[in-house]
């Protein structure tokens, strides 16, 4: 029955990995299709960032734009930011005088100028004492109108709505826009005048005179979920009116385009209106996403020609040299904004940049017409590729070994990655090879299905049945050849290690109000000991309370099972030292110590599964089990943690350090047996200190068993003076020697100590 116990129980597991792989491929394909255009797929987006670094844009059109930066030098020259809009008007006029093709103020103006006479007058009118002064201030010219006057002599735009919605790329952030309300915008196609655009809003409002003189342009920039800015919407809806982004307006100035034409997707719409899938400026046709966003494609060098605002303002005066240096603005579109020290620094795939720089780089990309594209059909192609490559990998895996299949998957993944890069570098097409590569590796895993995944599941079931009993070599053989008879009952010589976790009475009284803590401590320590036994190659059998038995030489034969049992005992002591160190490190259990008693015996026993169903356990019955349990019980009396019988000592004393403890008369035994304390490994055995202790201890036992208590007392004193001799064993012999010195030895004395069975 044992042979058939697990031979057929897990046959169905050989097909389970294939089912799991197929289900995983379907999940990957569906996720790939559903998230093909989502910016939340960060691994894909980071791969595209890497493609850009390998093959950046040429960046020649960046020279068509010029930054006027409000920097630390400008603040020191003019005063702290924000500046009155009269100062901004001077900047606009200075840029116009320098020959700028157009001027865009990227900092938002959709809030009252805090330094305008009007704003100051309102403050005084609301609570100041000098009402006449307040009225005079309110009658001064508006700074917005002064800024509007500056824009009346040059093409210009002003930034509004600097704060973006949470995610302008989602349809929930779209609003309705009427194309007829923008005279600079027209459309190709049919289906109505309303389009769906990312929704922006004025922070407060914009001065009508200023809005008439300079085109309000949305300056908001929205990063992806990982904080990197990769997309820039070009058209927004602002109070129901189509509004360009700062970058789009800058590109329009650079191309001398009076009109922008959008292409309506005839088959796509949402509740807000039709969807735009293309923008045309002059001769440039620019494909965009549903959110009218263009993906940033930055040049190798993201440096843009720039001038400090302080130099531009000083050029308006009599300083001819400075005025001459401002001639570099001639013919360029000028964007005025804060640098990254005074304003925000926005992360991009090429590092942190100021908003003004990002708008300029986006405008340069628009004028070049060089924008990477990711059409809607890419999601379908990538999802189909997942299933095709996954199926091919599964079929290939059936003919190769696991590592061969994995190597083929890795090679094909490299080809997919290379193909995606070639598509990007030659056609600007963004394809994602990662789902197909994942499918290849999943398919390769199917070769290990029946052997590995099924084996793991079978392993888990078996370990559950035997309560984490069997060592790894036995589990491996059971997984690979279930009918091998590993779980057959056996009659074999084994080494039995019996151990028990104990708490001294004082510690039990200290923790008597925390019984749950005690049980948890013992359970955790028992689990640690069981794992140590299994790692050492033994079978772990949990008994009642804190008692554990370990069997060596079963279920698989081991020629050195006695040495293995002794080595495992030493490992258990090390494990218990770590447990006690952890207890001492906690404020709740500081000072608490768990003691470990161990008995080791060897002999013939019956071993095998003993139980039924989930309560099945691998155990042993025989004299060696009883003797090991008996020796474990003597540990508290003798003090050493590990007590072995004569047979264990004879077969392993040349490997380990031992001290003979006593000769015991056991009820039911014909002759006394000697018991030994396992002291340590061969290094301890060969040490000078141990040899001295062992020699004195041997002479002590010889004198004691000969009945010469005077000589035994001398040898005891010598043994106790040896290094490391502070053990409870010598206190026992000191008491015995004193007793027999006073009362004499009994008749028939042989030095054996009687104990109960």
TrEMBL record:
Pfam families recorded: CHASE2
Source species, domain of life: Bacteria
Transmembrane helix found in the keyword field: yes
Residue ranges crossing the lipid bilayer per the database entry: 377-397, 409-431
Keyword terms of this UniProt record: Membrane, Transmembrane, Transmembrane helix
Limits of the Guanylate cyclase domain: 495-632
InterPro entries per the UniProt record, alphabetical: A/G_cyclase, CHASE2, Nucleotide_cyclase
Name the UniProt record assigns to this protein: CHASE2 domain-containing protein
Species this protein is from: Hyphococcus lacteus
């Amino acid at each position: 029955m044992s042979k058939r116990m697990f031979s057929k129980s897990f046959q169905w597991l050989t097909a389970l990995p294939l089912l799991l792989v197929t289900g995983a491929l379907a999940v990957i394909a569906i996720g790939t299709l559903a998230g093909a255009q989502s910016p939340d797929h960060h691994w894909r987006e980071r791969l595209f960032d890497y493609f850009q670094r390998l093959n950046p844009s040429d960046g020649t059109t960046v020279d068509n734009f010029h930054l006027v930066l409000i920097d630390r030098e400008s603040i020191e020259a003019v005063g702290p930011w924000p500046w009155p809009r009269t100062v901004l008007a001077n900047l606009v006029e200075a840029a116009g005088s320098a020959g700028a093709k157009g001027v865009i103020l990227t900092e938002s103006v959709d809030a009252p100028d805090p330094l305008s006479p009007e704003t100051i007058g309102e403050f005084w009118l609301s609570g100041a004492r000098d009402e006449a002064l307040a009225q005079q201030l309110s009658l001064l010219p508006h700074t917005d109108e002064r800024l509007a006057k500056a824009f009346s002599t040059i093409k210009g735009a002003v930034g509004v709505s600097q704060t973006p919605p949470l995610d302008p790329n989602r349809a929930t952030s779209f609003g309705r826009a009427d194309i007829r309300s923008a005279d600079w915008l027209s459309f190709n196609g049919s289906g109505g005048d309303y389009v769906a655009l990312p929704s922006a809003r004025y922070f407060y409002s914009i001065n009508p005179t200023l809005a008439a003189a300079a085109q309000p342009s949305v300056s908001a920039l929205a990063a992806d979920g990982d904080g990197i800015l990769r997309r820039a919407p070009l058209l927004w809806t602002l109070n129901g009116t189509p509004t360009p982004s700062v970058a789009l307006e800058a590109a329009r100035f650079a191309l001398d385009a009076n009109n922008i034409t959008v292409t309506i997707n005839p088959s796509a719409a949402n509740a807000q209106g039709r969807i735009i899938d293309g923008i045309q400026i002059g001769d440039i046709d620019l494909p965009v996403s549903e959110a009218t966003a263009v993906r940033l494609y930055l040049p190798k060098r993201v440096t843009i020609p720039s001038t400090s605002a302080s130099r531009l303002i000083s050029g308006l005066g009599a300083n001819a040299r400075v005025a001459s240096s401002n001639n570099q603005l001639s013919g360029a579109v000028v964007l005025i904004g804060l640098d990254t020290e005074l304003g925000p620094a926005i992360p991009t795939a090429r590092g942190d940049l100021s908003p003004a720089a990002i708008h300029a780089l986006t405008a340069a990309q628009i004028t070049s017409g060089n924008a990477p594209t990711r059409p809607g059909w890419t999601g379908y192609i990538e999802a189909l590729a997942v299933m095709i490559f996954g199926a091919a990998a599964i079929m290939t895996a059936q003919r190769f070994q696991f590592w061969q299949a994995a190597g083929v998957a890795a090679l094909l993944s490299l080809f997919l990655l290379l193909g995606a890069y070639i598509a990007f570098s030659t056609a600007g097409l963004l394809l994602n090879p990662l789902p197909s590569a994942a499918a290849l590796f999943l398919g390769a895993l199917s070769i290990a299905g029946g052997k590995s995944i099924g084996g793991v599941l079978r392993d888990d079931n078996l370990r559950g049945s035997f309560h984490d009993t069997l060592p790894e070599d036995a589990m491996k053989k059971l997984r690979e050849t279930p009918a091998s008879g590993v779980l057959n009952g056996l009659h074999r010589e084994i080494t039995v290690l019996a151990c028990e976790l104990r708490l001294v009475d004082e510690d039990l009284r200290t923790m008597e109000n925390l019984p749950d803590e005690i049980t948890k401590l013992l359970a955790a320590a028992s689990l640690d000991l069981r794992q140590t036994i299994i790692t050492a190659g033994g079978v772990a059998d949990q008994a009642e309370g804190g008692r554990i038995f370990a069997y060596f030489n079963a279920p698989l034969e081991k020629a050195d099972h006695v040495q293995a049992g002794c080595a495992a005992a030493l490992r258990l002591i090390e494990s218990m030292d770590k447990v006690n160190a952890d207890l001492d490190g906690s404020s709740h259990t500081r000072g608490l110590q768990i003691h470990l008693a161990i008995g080791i015996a060897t002999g013939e026993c019956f071993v095998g599964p003993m139980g039924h169903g989930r309560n099945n356990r691998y155990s042993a019955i025989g004299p060696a089990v009883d003797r090991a349990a008996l020796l474990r019980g003597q540990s508290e009396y003798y003090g050493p943690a590990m007590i072995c019988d004569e047979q264990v000592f004879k077969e392993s004393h040349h490997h380990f350090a031992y001290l003979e403890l006593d000769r015991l008369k056991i009820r039911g035994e014909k002759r006394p047996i000697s018991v030994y304390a396992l002291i340590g490994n061969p290094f301890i055995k060969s040490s000078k200190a141990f040899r001295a202790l062992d020699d004195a201890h041997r002479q002590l036992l010889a004198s004691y068993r000969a009945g010469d208590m005077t000589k035994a007392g001398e040898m005891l004193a010598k043994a106790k003076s040896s290094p490391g001799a502070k053990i409870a064993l010598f206190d026992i012999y000191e008491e015995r020697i004193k007793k027999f010195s006073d009362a004499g030895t009994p008749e028939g004395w042989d030095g054996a100590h009687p104990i109960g069975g």
